[in-house]
Structure formats: structure tokens, C-alpha cells
Recover the amino acids of this structure.
């Protein structure tokens, strides 16, 4: 599971990345701080099933389970990146491996379309969203158009499967046959007369492929200094928008790592532990406290959770070998937590555990109810499941 952080320079991407992963990355107020993609591990947060048992599993923190995902902070994007401007090629190459995108935008409007500093409120952040969508769409368009004339004639003349051919061409961009098929249906394009498609048809087709293959959530960053109207305007969009303060989250996680405070990602308050804080440090933390109590958190953890659970529609399932004790063969309680697409069944989980177990699947057992489950039984978030198979 990989989620990409995208956006123009100076929107706070690297700060968001560092806050979410505590990785050592450079943060500076100039374009292209990130030249090569930064990769790190962050976590989605959920209640652990062990809270319903007499003892904790040892793999959660006070009943909260943290499931790891990869986060990649790609190079900042500027207009015409798909044509190689700025570090566009780096950006697009790095982003192709992401299953979803968190678009970090400067909700304060204090940076122009290329990431240069301006006065707060001078730039409309809504324009940043359109700009990123267009760059991704035109990137896909550029790949399709490399040999479109020859390819479209060949598909038409030989009756080839367009979904298969285009998916093969766009495989490196993270596009599959299902994306192609859904886009063709939505655009109502004639599969039998590709040579009659107009440039407008193809761009619209690429735009739908982009939306299907690279689902996006908006992190409306710098919410603590953003004009309220900017946040309101962003939240009217027909997509998930989460106001965030990556700077506040980074301050809290850094202080927690240094044992100055007790703070868990996503909390709406913290406890000061150290008695050696300077007056300036105390004042800074108090300012952050006022912010997160007002906004119910910094939004960073909420954004990550929303990307995984709401945007990608995933659930967490816990496979075990002993349905009574909820343990594996070594006696470890709830050792694994798998992210799976909502609608997945028991047989899907068997394959997720191991291909041999999937091939030799017999049935599953709901460890909570001890009920036997068939291969088509749809799993729910938080299920604890034993897989029974003939695999050794």
C-alpha cells in the first residue's frame, strides 16, 4: 500500500511527510526542496479487536492498532510538468506507484501557482486542484498519444481488445484494464471507430482514467493561518477535503519523540511530561493546544485515515490460527493486520495470507462468533478470522 503526497512547492508536503513519518527530510521555504522522492512509513489508526478481550494483544497501544503504509513525498509540481518543466518528470515517475494521492495544498493562499511566496489570501487554492488534475491527465494523454495513430488503426483493423492494448501501454502509470473499461463506458466512446475520436474525446477519456486510477484526497494545509473563506470554499468540493496543520503535527510528534509531552497521532490534546521546558517552548505548545482543541486535531492522521478507509474503501482484517485465543502458531495474539478492499471475502483473505493457502482453501471461522464461513462470505472491518486449508 503506497500513498503519494503531491502538490506544488512550498505547500507543506515535506512538513506533512516528516510529521507523518518522523523521517529526516529537508524542509525549506524555496521551490524544489524535494528533488528525489522521500519514502517513509506512516500508519492508519483503528481500534484493536483485543479491547473486547480480557487482555491486550501486545501489538497495539492502549487498544489502538497502527497499521503501516508507505508514504512517498514526490518532487513539487509546477505548470506544464507533463512536458518536463521543473522537476515534472521526476514527479510523474515517482507517483506512478501510488494507489492514491494526498494533494497537499496551501489553503492560506500564501503561495502562487508555482509555489513562490505571496501575501496570505493573494492566491486562490482552488486553482491548485485544477492544475494538478490537468497535469496528471495530460501525463496520461502524452503516454497514449506516443503512437496513437498507428495503434488506433491496428486495433480497428485487427479487432484487437482496446482495454488490453491500452492497459498494457499505461501499465507503468498504474492503470489497469478495469480503469480503461470504466472510462470507455463513462465517456461513451465507440470502441469500433477509434480513428474518429477527437482530441477533446481523448483528453476527456484520459481525465476519467486519471480520476479512476489515481483517486485523490485534499489536505487543506496551513489551516491555522488560512482565511476562513478559503477553507469553506474548499469544503464545498465534491471530494474529500481535510483541513490540516502539518507544522502543528510535526511540533507535537517531535515533542512526543523527545518525551516532552505525551501525544498520540490524531489526539485532540496532549499532556506535558517534561519540567525542563523553556517559557518559549511552553508558549509554543500552548498555542498548538489552542489550535487542536478548536479544530479537533491537526488533521494529519485524519487525512491519512480518510485516504485509506474512505477514499480507497479499505477495511482491516486480522487472520489467526487459533480461533479461541486469537493467536498464531507461536502464541502471538493478533500478530497481523491486513488492509483489504471492502467487499473482500474469506477466500480473498486466504490468498492474502499465502497463495498456497488460497489454492487449498476449505473454509474460514469467525473467531468472534466461532461460526463457520464459506469462501464467498464478505468480510467486515475488524473481523478476526481463522483460515482452514489443506496447505502445510
Amino acid at each position: 500500500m503506497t500513498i503519494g503526497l503531491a502538490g506544488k512547492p512550498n505547500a507543506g508536503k515535506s512538513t506533512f511527510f516528516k510529521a507523518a513519518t518522523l523521517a529526516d527530510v529537508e524542509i525549506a521555504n524555496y521551490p524544489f526542496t524535494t528533488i528525489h522522492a522521500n519514502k517513509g512509513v506512516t500508519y492508519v489508526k483503528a481500534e484493536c479487536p483485543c479491547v473486547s478481550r480480557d487482555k491486550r494483544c501486545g501489538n497495539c497501544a492502549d487498544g489502538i492498532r497502527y497499521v503501516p503504509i508507505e508514504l512517498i513525498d514526490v518532487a513539487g509540481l509546477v505548470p506544464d510538468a507533463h512536458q518536463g518543466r521543473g522537476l515534472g518528470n521526476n514527479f510523474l515517475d515517482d507517483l506512478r506507484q501510488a494507489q492514491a494521492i494526498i494533494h497537499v495544498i496551501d489553503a492560506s493562499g500564501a503561495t502562487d501557482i508555482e509555489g513562490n511566496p505571496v501575501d496570505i489570501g493573494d492566491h486562490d487554492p482552488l486553482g491548485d486542484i485544477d492544475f494538478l488534475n490537468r497535469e496528471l491527465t495530460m501525463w496520461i494523454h502524452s503516454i497514449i498519444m506516443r503512437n496513437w495513430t498507428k495503434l488506433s488503426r491496428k486495433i480497428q483493423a485487427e479487432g484487437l481488445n482496446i482495454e488490453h492494448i491500452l492497459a498494457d501501454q499505461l501499465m507503468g502509470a498504474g492503470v489497469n484494464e478495469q480503469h480503461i473499461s470504466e472510462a470507455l463506458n463513462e465517456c461513451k466512446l465507440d470502441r469500433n471507430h477509434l480513428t474518429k475520436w477527437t482530441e477533446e474525446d481523448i483528453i476527456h477519456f484520459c481525465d476519467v482514467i486519471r480520476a479512476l486510477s489515481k483517486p485523490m484526497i485534499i489536505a487543506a494545509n496551513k489551516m491555522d493561518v488560512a482565511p476562513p473563506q478559503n477553507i469553506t470554499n474548499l469544503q464545498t468540493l465534491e471530494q474529500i477535503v481535510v483541513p490540516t496543520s502539518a507544522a502543528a503535527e510535526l511540533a507535537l510528534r517531535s515533542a512526543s519523540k523527545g518525551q516532552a509531552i505525551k501525544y498520540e497521532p490524531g489526539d485532540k490534546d496532549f499532556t506535558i511530561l517534561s519540567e525542563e521546558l523553556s517559557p518559549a517552548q511552553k508558549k509554543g505548545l500552548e498555542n498548538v493546544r489552542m489550535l487542536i482543541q478548536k479544530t479537533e486535531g491537526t488533521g494529519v492522521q485524519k487525512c491519512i485515515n480518510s485516504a485509506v478507509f474512505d477514499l480507497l474503501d479499505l477495511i482491516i482484517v486480522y487472520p489467526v490460527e487459533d480461533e479461541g485465543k486469537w493467536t498464531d502458531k507461536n502464541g502471538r495474539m493478533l500478530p497481523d493486520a491486513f488492509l483489504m478492499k471492502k467487499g473482500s471475502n474469506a477466500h480473498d483473505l486466504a490468498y492474502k495470507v499465502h497463495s498456497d493457502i488460497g489454492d487449498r482453501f476449505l473454509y474460514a471461522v469467525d473467531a468472534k462468533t466461532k461460526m463457520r464461513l464459506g469462501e464467498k462470505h464478505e468480510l467486515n472491518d475488524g473481523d478476526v478470522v481463522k483460515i482452514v486449508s489443506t496447505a502445510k
About this structure: The chain has a mean pLDDT of 90.
